[in-house]
Amino acid sequence: MNATEQTEIPGFRFVPRTGVIYVMHEAMGHGFSYDDPDWANLGQGSPETGPIPEAPPRIEQVIINATQQQYAPVGGNRDLCQAAADFYNAVYRQDKKSKYTRENVSIASGGRLALTRLASALGNVNMGHFIPDYTAYEELLSVFKAFSSIPILLDAEANYRITPGALKKEILGRGLSALLASNPCNPTGQLVEDGELSEWCDLARECQCSLILDEFYSHYIFSGGGNGPPKMVSAAAFVEDVERDPIILVDGLTKNWRYPGWRISWTLGPKAVIEAIASAGSFLDGGANHPFQNAAAGLLEPKLAMQETRAIQQHFRQKRDYVLRRLREMGILVDAEPAGAFYVWANLSKLPKPLNDGMSFFRQGLKEKVIIVPGVFFDVNPGNRRAHGRYENYCRISFGPEMKKLQIGLDGLERMIRR
Predict the structure, then answer these.
(1) CB-hemisphere CA count at 13 Å for 82?
(2) What pTM did the predictor assign?
(3) Which of 307, 315, 289, 296 is nearest to 232 (CA)?
(4) pLDDT digits (tens, 9 = 90+) for 371-416
(5) Is 376 helix (H, G, I), strand (E, B) or coil?
(6) In what order do the strands lie in the sheet with 394-398?
(7) CA-based nearest residue to 250, from 90, 88, 99
(8) What dihedral do alpha carbons 62, 65, 70, 73 form, nearest 10°?
(9) Is the four-CA dihedral 182, 359, 33, 42 of positive or negative sign?
(10) Which segments of 66-110 are extended strands (E)?
């Protein structure tokens, strides 16, 4: 069944699975289970959650008091909202006169729900998005009809990047009032940082285009180094006025704190935006998990977050380099090395048929008990309005799993290619 077909139940449409959910469903049909040591999930969109060298101890218990048995406010627990505001002010805005307050923060049950709240609050505008980008954006951009989604293609020849000048032409030429992007990008790992990110924020102000940045991988930065504090990247550093600048940031515990199962995210932006998405949350979801919000507030203490970030960067850089080396030894190309996140956007075009096709590569990998995500899922195509697909010769390979699983998975892919 394709996305244009109907279900057999009156009134319901076919709802496609996102890339990761699709491949996991298929893998389970081939016998995958999370406790099977022979399987390696190199398609996973989450980081390893256990202890890693030099990281703070993991939280293993949460105490729930009587007041936390009640619903939390739709916009989030006051303490967590304040902790998020304080974190961004301390890490990115110490020299800024304009500061975030708890009224500039909204809490939701994970990143996709935070983005859903934002999408539901948009008006009748053109919203730009990049190709390739996060698979879940496709259905998110399809289901809400108030705005029109406008694709912006990023080329391999340009390392999946766009210059500020070219971005300005896209915003003005296509009449964009909003722009959605992941930074660092899922799946390519490309990063907009420093002066270039500052120019993006300038464009948001100059062109009056709301910049919605998914910053869930903003602590997985591999361009830093040295003995100073670990490098974190956020557009919060370049916001001039938290109330007037049309810059909205989304992050959470899932990736940067390695607590995906907690389903806690936060959105930062002008109070008017925060009020709008709280209203959306009142009918979409009713608010995030209450007990975990209290526990989450302590994780945003800057020194603790810095310690976790330094450990992440050291540990995941080693895994990234290992995966890149193994893939190149197999004849798999990498158009642009990831500067952030924990994915390799792998170019399969030089492999023999049928392995040069991402979907075939995925299905053959299942025979070796290895899971990857075919590249076609990152060709964000809301409503299937474009007939021509892209990225058939690509796949996303995650180095989110622990090193042992990476070794098992890459050994399986190597056997598959040799076979």
Answers:
(1) 5
(2) 0.94
(3) 307
(4) 999 999 999 887 777 767 789 999 999 999 999 999 999 999 999 9
(5) helix
(6) 333-334, 343-347, 394-398, 373-374
(7) 88
(8) -70
(9) negative
(10) 105-108
